[in-house]
Design goal:
Radius of gyration: 21 Å
Helix content: over 70%
Structural class: mainly alpha
Number of strands: 0
Number of helices: 17
Strand content: under 5%
Distance between the termini: 35 Å
Length: 478
């Protein structure tokens, strides 16, 4: 039994990381009431976490090579726990958003190192078992998130969803330092940090997110909105220049000339946007309009989480028989169909049952796509770029979440204003907002499916890679 204690330490970190993502949405209405938060602030509570993950995943991977995976994992756990405490004690929305950003920093360190720790600790048959258990814990955490979040929020207040991380993190850190091996850093002499690239990428993503959120609140002609779009464009150009000049780039631009890899990155971004970004606004509708309790609100989202978990568990072992474009492209098509069904089903007089069929169909798509997305990206590049490819596809997933919430928030706000200004009820306004969001989600899923199906090909000489479940094996609400 002792040989599995390192796996327990790694799985505990994955559990709190994923649970924290999925339970926040259920608590958003209570947070808004207690902190008197604006709609834009609620978006940032979710977005800043995903933005920090997107910006730092590849950088923290390089840091792990320089300073050791175990050391960075333990540090990430500590930062995540302290930031969770700060979230729970936050007296206002600004402090909560800041603490969530710090959580994202810790989460990036945990996420970038956990797969490598599993791979370094276990070998042969044990490695397959370890990755299987880790993937199951990821899926179970994501599926349990809405229910756990509802129970904690309803029973103890929204602060409890952050405080629950503390004892788990303490145990995980203690086990990490006691039972995880501490090999010498593998690349201390050769690895370099691409700080200019990381800074430019972060600035571009943050400025674009800010522009989308502010544009929805203050209009697209607002001076700060326009300025933010300009900054985002300039920073994106700066990122390209930095990567082109760097001897150790965060993302080797030449890889984007490979159709399969470029198609997978675009598909990953659109997958995350289409499958998960709209659920933030569904949670608000369930509690603010239908007046469901946090627990019942969490249960209403379970068709997606539960279906995704079952499909991934049942079908995942057979995915290797197909070219990657089949499960990924097919999964995106399922997400598009599920989104269209929600678009057609939710009206001013609808109840929570209007979501169930569409969420379940989308869950099939999530279950098909998630198990193979990272391994497909790794197989699409040369073996010595496998780590970069895995980090890139997870970065683009988080970027899709960030931009999706910001974009959908702008659309949702515009629909609310239009319907209420023309005499419509709040029920009708929320339904109109969800209507437009899920139509856009369906379009994104369809575009992603077509791109993947037409660009991604099975490599002639696949690079063997251990399965790498990613942060959002989170078939849930984030």
């Amino acid at each position: 039994m002792r040989k599995w204690l390192p796996l327990v330490a790694i799985c505990l970190g994955a559990f709190i990381l994923l649970v924290d993502v999925t339970i926040v949405n259920v608590a958003l209405p209570r947070m808004a009431d207690d902190l008197h938060a604006s709609f834009a602030s609620l978006q940032w509570v979710i977005d800043i976490y995903a933005l920090a993950l997107a910006a730092l995943l590849m950088v923290t991977g390089s840091l792990a090579d320089l300073f050791g995976h175990r050391r960075l994992y333990a540090l990430g756990l500590t930062v995540f726990a302290l930031a969770s405490l700060a979230c729970a004690l936050a007296p206002n929305a600004a402090v909560l958003i800041t603490a969530r950003a710090v959580q994202g920093v810790g989460g990036a360190a945990m996420f970038a190192t956990s797969a490598a720790l599993v791979s370094a600790t276990y070998h042969g048959r044990d490695r397959g078992v370890a990755f299987g258990v880790w993937g199951a814990v990821n899926g179970a955490a994501a599926a349990a998130g809405p229910i756990v979040g509802g129970l904690l929020t309803e029973g103890f207040g929204w602060q409890a969803i952050f405080l629950v991380n503390l004892p788990i993190a303490v145990v995980a850190v203690a086990l990490t330092l006691r039972v995880l091996p501490a090999p010498a850093p593998a690349a201390r002499s050769g690895a370099r940090l691409d700080l200019p690239g990381a800074a430019a990428f972060t600035l571009a993503a943050a400025a674009l997110t800010y522009a989308l959120i502010r544009g929805g609140e203050h209009g697209w002609g607002d001076a700060l909105t326009v300025s933010a779009f300009v900054v985002a464009a300039l920073a994106a150009v700066g990122f390209v220049v930095a990567e082109h000049r760097s001897s150790h780039p965060m993302l080797e631009l030449a890889l984007l000339r490979r159709p399969s890899f470029a198609g997978l990155l675009t598909g990953a971004l659109l997958y995350q946007l289409a499958a998960f970004s709209g659920l933030v606004f569904v949670s608000l509708w369930l509690q603010n309009i239908l007046h469901l309790s946090p627990v019942r609100g969490g249960l209403a989202l379970m068709p997606l989480a539960g279906t995704a978990f079952v499909v991934a568990a049942v079908a995942g072992r057979h995915m290797h028989r197909f070219a990657p474009r089949v499960p990924i492209g097919g999964g995106l098509l399922f997400i598009a169909v599920g989104s269209l069904l929600i678009w057609a089903s939710v009206h001013a007089g609808s109840g929570q049952s209007a979501l169930f069929a569409g969420l379940a169909i989308s869950g099939v798509g999530v279950g098909l796509t998630t198990p193979v997305l990272v391994s497909a990206a790794i197989e699409a590049v040369p073996p010595h770029r496998a780590g970069m490819a895995g980090g890139a596809v997870n970065t683009f997933r988080q970027l899709g979440m960030t931009l999706g919430i910001a974009l959908f928030g702008a659309v949702f706000t515009a629909r609310l204003r239009h319907v209420t200004s023309t005499g419509g009820t709040v029920h009708a306004a929320y339904a109109a907002g969800l209507d437009r969001i899920f139509l856009l989600a369906a379009i994104a899923g369809l575009v992603g499916a077509l791109l993947v199906l037409t660009t991604v090909r099975r490599p002639t000489s696949p690079t063997p890679a251990a399965p790498t479940p990613s942060l959002e094996e989170q078939p849930a609400t984030s």
